[in-house]
Amino acid sequence: MRATVGDQLVQHGRVVGQHDKVGEIVEVMGQAGTPPYRVRFEDGHVGVCAPGPDTEIRHKETGPSMGR
């Protein structure tokens, strides 16, 4: 798993009715984009995350796509 500052970290809910937690990566603490990450969640909480299998990284867009 690799990420850059500005990417979204999404922790999927593990049980029925539990919502996903979405946050913005504000610091990459590992080497070459690897975890751990400092993440600011939608509720304002900032924490350090070492993502597990229930987590995905949504990469920020790098700019407009050519030819679309």
From TrEMBL:
Pfam families: DUF1918
InterPro entries (UniProt xref): DUF1918
Domain DUF1918: 1-57
Domain of life according to the entry: Bacteria
The name this protein goes by in its record: DUF1918 domain-containing protein
